[in-house]
Design goal:
The complex is a heterodimer of chains A (355) and B (299). The longest helix of chain A has 27 residues. Helix content of chain A is 77%, strand content 1%. In chain A, helix 5 packs antiparallel against helix 11. Chain A is mostly helical. Chain A folds into 2 domains: 43 residues, no CATH class; 224 residues, no CATH class. Chain A has a two-stranded antiparallel sheet with strand order 1-2. In chain B, 74% of the residues lie in helices and 3% in strands. Chain B is built from 13 helices and 2 strands; from the N terminus they run αααααββαααααααα. Chain B has a two-stranded antiparallel ribbon with strand order 1-2. The relative contact order of chain B is 0.19. The chains are: A mainly alpha (355), B mainly alpha (299). Chains A and B meet through helix 5, helix 6, helix 7, helix 12 and helix 15 of A and helix 4, helix 10 and helix 13 of B.
């Protein structure tokens, strides 16, 4: 009985918040962007463009999950690729060999991701210092080594004939949503909106306040009777679950998965996108992912152009450029780009309206 | 039968000791930086990559003088980069641990892709140094086991360096300042020690040790931009085992990890060999988070 009332008040609060929020400048810009995103698949049927936008939205989910953990709980994970990868593998495996429906495989994958994350996460979260950062990084690297091992792949195929799991090729030909790309786009779009709305409101809830208290002063939070480990683990699980959802979508987007997904590279992606948008701004992840995906695509196209690669060499390699950008952002613009960008936009808008 | 067993055991011992020697150099530097400055240097593997690639480029590009020049440049440039990382990236961000970790992580990627662009991303081999200097054979045989000269070199150099570094930290004036900063950096600063200078030196020592490890291990390993990451997690597993910031702990931890992973690879199953670092990390975090020689305050 009590729980139901809680949900009702939460929904009412959310409604009144929405009414207020839509009148703010930030709300208007967001709604405009969302409308643009929502109608995009009906304007164009170009699969290349839709594909890029799909990647952008999946990365937004992924970056938001990292940003939640690092920005609001202060727990920096360098192995978010664990969640992405485990979930991608489980989703691919169950969809291909057990013929599970995609949504069930997606949720199952996310649960497995959380499970694997907890194996290293729980012991490290009990401690201070670098344990979480390097523990998660190690876990992702070791999963990479394991999954790309071809001897293990042969062993697996001998034990479970007709299925494949390990080996450098991974699991391919996951054909879902390929007939109607618009539906896949809308599915990702809805999941992204739900994730971002959930996270932005979760950090304002009571639990979110406790998490922020842990981030700002762990000893103080402990002294106030908060079981910090419990809350850190909860946050870790939520973050892992959301990253896992991104991992499952990632499999569908690329119609397959290979061991490369466990590389530290993908953890790096999450960090750069979150840092670009601004750490501790969930919606900043969307801006970060947007810049990351589109700049990355431009750099890749430049790199494919022989005239340009002839003059500036391979220096347009996206990850090389992004590692420099990340260093610069962390060094000089710790708060990311979302807030300054919104302020500039607002003053420009005011100027146009003559206010 | 017994002959086979002796051969297996001997080759296991040799490879484990060699691996332990390399790991001890790498973990020593990693642990030193964490112990003195509380800096978690994710770019530790990048030092190894830089040194390996400089050595590879010189040995491959220049006949005759390539080795000597490679040695000088590899050690020099890596050490200087170690100092520069501190001054340019870590020092301005010292207040925020998270930023330091992220910046060094980004730097590791920067190096990985920089060497990929400047050289290429295909795995290479460095020519054996003894062959390079005109030796006819690169190994000798004891009880049916081939022992490379390179492995003897690794063992001698690594052991000497571990002893020298320990003496240096214990006895020299700079070593004393390093220990003072490790104990209490504020008090050290009040006593007139330039903490930033000490931390820069510490990172340079760490980079130097990683470069030595890269150079002596060069002909036995593969030259690839990705090599830094396994180095980083092995160093981390070792310092978790030995105790973060404890120097004897990291040397002992290095040999334990090397023996454990080589043993698994040789006698149980090569597949499980890759799992050893994470198993070590998880077990240590659960049963004794401060490590074998760690201080109490960590857990």
């Amino acid at each position: 009985m009590k729980k139901r009332k809680d949900l009702k008040t939460v929904l009412n609060d959310f409604k009144s918040y929405l009414r207020f929020w839509i009148k703010t400048f930030r709300g208007q810009v967001t709604v405009l962007c969302l409308i643009g995103l929502a109608i995009l698949p009906f304007i164009t049927t170009n699969t290349y463009i839709i594909g890029i936008f799909n990647t952008f939205m999946i990365y937004t989910i992924f970056a938001a999950s990292w940003d939640f953990l690092a920005g609001y709980v202060g727990q920096v994970s360098f192995g978010h690729a664990i969640f992405l990868g485990v979930s991608a593998y489980v989703t691919a495996f169950t969809v291909k060999f057990f013929l599970f429906p995609w949504w069930f495989a997606l949720i199952l994958g996310a649960f497995f991701a959380v499970l694997f994350g907890l194996i290293v996460g729980v012991p490290s979260l009990r401690l201070k210092g670098p344990y979480l950062a390097l523990g998660t990084l190690s876990m992702s690297l070791i999963l990479y080594e394991l999954f790309k091992m071809s001897s293990l792949g042969l062993l697996w195929e001998a034990t479970f004939p007709g299925t494949e799991l390990f080996g450098t090729t991974g699991i391919g030909q996951i054909i879902i949503f390929t007939d109607i790309p618009q539906i896949f786009y809308i599915v990702i779009f809805i999941i992204m909106c739900v994730v971002v709305v959930f996270l932005t409101h979760f950090v304002k809830s009571n639990t979110g306040t406790i998490l922020k208290a842990i981030r700002d002063d762990e000893t103080g939070a402990k002294a106030s009777g908060i079981n910090t480990t419990k809350y850190k683990v909860i946050a870790f699980m939520i973050s892992g679950f959301i990253a896992g959802i991104a991992g499952g979508l990632f499999t569908f987007r690329h119609t397959g998965v290979n061991p490369g997904i466990f590389q530290p590279l993908y953890s790096f992606y999450a960090i750069i996108m979150a840092a670009l948008g601004g750490i501790a701004t969930i919606s900043g992840s969307a801006l970060g992912a947007f810049i990351f995906v589109f700049l990355g695509e431009i750099l890749r196209l430049l790199g494919d152009n022989p005239n340009i690669t002839g003059t500036i060499g391979g220096f347009v390699e996206p990850i090389f450029v992004f590692s420099i950008i990340l260093i610069i952002i962390i060094r000089f613009a710790e708060h990311g780009l979302l807030k300054p960008a919104l302020e500039r936009l607002k003053s420009l808008w005011d100027l146009i309206l003559g206010r | 039968m017994t002959q086979k067993l002796i051969e297996d055991l001997l080759s296991f011992l040799v490879s484990a000791v060699i691996q332990g020697s390399i790991y001890s150099l790498l973990a020593l530097g990693f642990s030193l930086v964490y112990g003195v400055g509380g800096i978690l240097n994710q770019a530790h593997g990048a030092f190894y990559v830089i040194a390996t690639y400089i050595m590879y480029v010189f040995i491959n590009g220049l006949a005759g003088v390539g080795f000597t020049l490679g040695l000088i440049f590899s050690l020099g440039i890596t050490t200087i980069i170690g100092g520069l990382i501190y001054l340019v990236l870590i020092k301005p961000l010292k207040e925020s641990h998270v930023s330091v970790v992220i910046v060094t992580f980004a730097f590791a990627f920067f190096i990985e892709y920089l060497v990929g662009i400047l050289v290429d991303r295909i795995p290479h081999k460095i020519e054996d140094y003894f062959i390079y200097f005109g030796a006819s054979e690169r190994f000798f045989t004891v009880f049916g086991v081939d022992i490379q000269y390179q492995e003897i070199l690794i063992f001698i150099v690594a052991t000497l360096l571990v002893i020298l570094i320990t003496l240096f930290i214990k006895k020299s004036k700079l070593g004393k300042s390093i220990r003072a900063v490790a104990q209490d950096s504020e008090a050290a600063e009040l006593m007139g020690i330039n903490v930033d200078k000490i931390l820069a030196y510490t990172l340079m020592i760490s980079a130097f040790l990683a470069a030595i490890a890269a150079i002596i291990n060069g002909p036995l390993g593969t030259v690839t931009p990705y090599a830094g990451w396994p180095i980083l997690i092995n160093s981390f597993a070792i310092v978790v085992l030995g105790g973060l910031g404890s120097l004897p702990g990291s040397v002992l931890g290095a040999y334990i990890l090397a023996f454990a992973s080589r043993f698994t690879q040789s006698f149980i199953n090569p597949i499980f060999g890759a799992l050893i670092p994470i198993v070590v990390i998880v077990i240590m975090l659960i049963i004794r988070p401060r490590g074998i020689f760690g201080k109490k305050e960590i857990d």
